[in-house]
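**Discrete fold encoding**
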Amino acid sequence: MTGLRELKKQQTRNRIADVAIRLFAERGFDNVAVAAIAREAEVSEATVFNYFPSKEDLVYGGMDEFEEALVEAVRERKEGQSAFGAFREFLLQPRGALTSGQTDRIATAARIIAGSPALQARELRSFDRHTAALAEVLQREGQAAPWVVANALIGVQRAMKDAVHRHALAGRHGDHITKDVIEQARVALDVLERGL
């Protein structure tokens, strides 16, 4: 059970993130200073940076957590399970915004990202970092062409993210997005599995 202190910390984190997303949506990511976010969230700038190490993390913190968990699922998979099997199992389980009906928030984030070269560059760095981490796990386990395999697998996750954004921006909601994106990922992974 979560203690009161942890609950308060989570509430503060959520308030900061909510304020940041609202301000980014209203003014554009590049036009909002961290000081403005702190002021609106009624915290200090230091508090913002305690929860989010960079301004970009206000948008990408959740994606980084997801990708780190994805690599960890492959690294710590059950004995006898293939790396591909662990990746597939993790990726095809709806999580986060796909299960919580936050389609409007996804669409808002997609618009914010589309309007900011800084965020687009940050997204590429995040995908590159997690691709390298996955390739390292695969290489340690003797996977042939680990960098190619890691890029192919992370490419499916990137395609899922792009599809979620397209659906949300087109006004689709909830279960429709989840089912469609999971099915697209399943088909892509089937193709890769036959090739791999």
The chain has a mean pLDDT of 89. The first helix runs from residue 4 to 27.
